[in-house]
């Protein structure tokens, strides 16, 4: 499993630019917002956490279609299905490697983009913390879409269509927890704990559903 993790980590970084493409797309999404809403710094600071979260969500969707595509192309997907190691565990390791290579750099880059949106220190810290807690759920949800679309010639768009509606609860509670940390009367802990619960839920459901979809695809 350790060898599989580092193998997938290298493949995720090399394929299509990996983390660099995601961070550049993240930067592009956030950078165009001030040109659309105007130079109002107060407005930018108010909508900053939501914009950073949306940008990170969209950037995290990049490359999800390639989660199982390499194994499908070289035939190693059949070996994964026949090996003694449970397929669910294999999918979990691949999701962990994909998150480390693509979503973790977005979490690290979020404070710099928070400064770009005129966010204060509390908002930047809360955004980074909620992204760290919630972004794995996006990867686990995306694994299901990637497994469903792995056999399709143009599965990238289908993965985004399948995954995006399912990530809305993660986005809602991630942004809610961030705003709760900024606004003193609002409690931060309840939405943050729900966000963690969503990640744990999809960490169980996502790999199991993806493994089932891969087996059905092979049939």
Distance between termini? 25 Å
* Total number of strands: 0
Low-confidence stretches: none
- Secondary structure tally, helices: 10
Strand portion, in percent? Answer: under 5%
Structural shape = elongated
What is the makeup of the main sheet? none
- C-alpha Rg (nearest Å): 18 Å
Mean pLDDT: 83
Task: Give the SSE string.
Answer: HHHHHHHHHH
Structural class given helices, strands, pairing?
mainly alpha
Helix content: over 70%
What number of domains?
1
Description:
The chain crosses the membrane at residues 12-37, 43-64, 128-150, 157-182, 188-214. Its main location: membrane. This is Heme exporter protein B. InterPro entries: Cyt_c_biogenesis_CcmB, Cyt_c_CcmB_bac. Belongs to the CcmB/CycW/HelB family. By secondary structure, the chain is mostly helical. The protein has one domain. Helix content is 83%, strand content 0%. It has 10 helices and no strands. Helix 2 (19-37) packs parallel to helix 6, helix 6 (87-116) runs antiparallel to helix 7 (121-149) and helix 7 crosses helix 8. The longest helix has 30 residues, at 87-116. It starts with a helix and ends with a helix.
């Amino acid at each position: 499993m350790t060898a599989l993790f580092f193998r997938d980590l290298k493949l995720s970084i090399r394929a299509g630019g990996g983390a660099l493409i995601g961070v550049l797309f993240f930067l592009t999404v956030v950078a165009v917002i001030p040109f659309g809403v105007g130079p109002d710094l107060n407005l930018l600071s108010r909508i900053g956490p939501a914009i950073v979260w949306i940008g990170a969500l969209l950037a995290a969707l990049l490359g999800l279609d390639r989660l199982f595509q390499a194994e499908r192309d070289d035939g190693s997907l059949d070996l994964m299905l026949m090996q003694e190691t449970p397929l669910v565990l294999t999918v979990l390791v691949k999701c962990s490697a994909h998150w480390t290579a693509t979503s973790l750099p977005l979490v690290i880059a979020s404070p710099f983009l928070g400064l770009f949106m005129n966010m204060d220190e509390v908002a930047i810290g809360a955004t980074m913390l909620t992204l760290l807690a919630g972004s794995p759920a996006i990867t686990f949800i995306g694994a299901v879409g990637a497994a469903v679309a792995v056999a399709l010639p143009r599965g990238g768009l289908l993965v985004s269509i399948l995954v995006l509606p399912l990530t809305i609860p993660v986005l809602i509670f991630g942004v809610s927890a961030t705003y709760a940390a900024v606004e003193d009367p609002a409690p931060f802990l309840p939405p943050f704990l729900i966000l963690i619960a969503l990640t744990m839920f999809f960490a169980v459901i996502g790999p199991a559903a993806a493994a089932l979809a891969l087996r059905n695809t092979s049939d």
